[in-house]
Amino acid sequence: MSSVFPTDSVGLVSPKLAHFNQPLRLACGRTLEQYELIYETYGELNATASNAVLICHALSGTHHAAGFHHPDDRKPGWWDSCIGPGKPIDTNKFFVVSLNNLGGCHGSTGPSSINPKTGQVYGAHFPVITVEDWVHSQARLADQLGIEQWAAVVGGSLGGMQALQWAISYPERIRNCVSIAAAPRLSAQNIAFNEVARQAILTDPDFHAGSFTEQGTIPKRGLMLARMVGHITYLSDDSMGQKFGRELKTDRLNYDFHSVEFQVESYLRYQGEQFSNSFDANTYLLMTKALDYFDPAAKHDGDLTATFANAKANFYIISFTTDWRFSPARSKEIVDALMDAKKNVSYLDIDAPQGHDAFLMPIPRYLQAFSGYMNRISV
């Protein structure tokens, strides 16, 4: 590892591409005849393949969770604070696998990929994907990597939902489930926020019913608005107040509707602009729908306890006090159901002002507690 990187970094990493020719039957009733998953690995797989940890990403996440792709990269992977030598997910101990989910737009097969049947971009013709579909595709990746059982499956937000689904769908293939800032299903309010974001994209004149690539356009305005709406929900009122307050970006008020006068307006527009240049609109629609559809208890008449009946993993559930998108009450629903199902579960609610995005941040108590749990996992 080059000396230009911090000593607790995994250093330079290169993505790998896994090809799958076995058809994947999806929950929506359609089938992907073939597909690819892009992923990165950190650390070394031990001789018994018993030290593997799967990282599941959230809505806009990618396979690049830790380290750097180039020596001059300004920022490391999205969860670098938690993955690396001596960090909570210690790469001196664990072999870590992080992938971009099916339907993504960062290298795995998704709406922006070429459909081999037509030679054209999938676009709006890419099938709707669910969390359960993702887990099935991840299980095939594990097979290809020679991993029969994960030491842990870990994720935050939508990633935490995938970790829970792993424990439900493949109870023999996961020893520890670490679900952070997640929920057993979305509330009506959360579905409503997702719908507003989708409508911003769907009604953008440049969306062209999802076939914008063929038209040589990007629904930039819709993507910007979707990201702005989403970003507001990821932060707490306190964190936004501390970061921006009512501070003005301009010297005076302009008394119009077009000027960017408040710092928070400037911040949201910047976030929307950056996101619209790097994320596929059809993928955003897919990811939000996967969130909406996640409800594993639906197969058990809404009984979450019965849903976890066959799970064999140990569970670690973490929430954050100011997360109003997936509040601590939602994590407690999971904990209560696991306890009723007589499963081994640990729960921690972290006092943090950052809101939902706290799971991405290097909060000392969070990292300490996370490390404490991961250190106890035998490999």
Structure, explained:
It is a single chain. This protein is an alpha/beta fold. The protein contains 10 helices and 10 strands. A hairpin with a 5-residue loop joins strand 2 (24-25) and strand 3 (31-32). The two termini are 25 Å apart.
Number of strands: 10
Helix fraction?
25-40%
The helix tally amounts to 10
Biggest sheet, strands in spatial order? 1-4-6-5-7-8-9-10
Largest sheet: 8 strands, mixed
C-alpha termini separation:
25 Å
Radius of gyration using CA atoms only: 21 Å
Q: Calculate the mean pLDDT score and round it.
A: 95
Percent range for β-strand residues: 5-15%
Structural class comes to alpha/beta
Mass-distribution shape: globular
Helix-strand pattern: EEEEEEHEHEHHHHHHEHEH
Unreliable residue stretches: none
Short description:
This protein has 379 residues and is α/β, with parallel strands linked by helices. It has helices spanning 131-145, 158-169, 188-202, 220-234, 237-243, 263-276, 281-293, 304-307, 328-340, 364-375; strands at residues 16-20, 24-25, 31-32, 35-42, 52-56, 95-99, 152-156, 176-180, 314-320, 345-350.
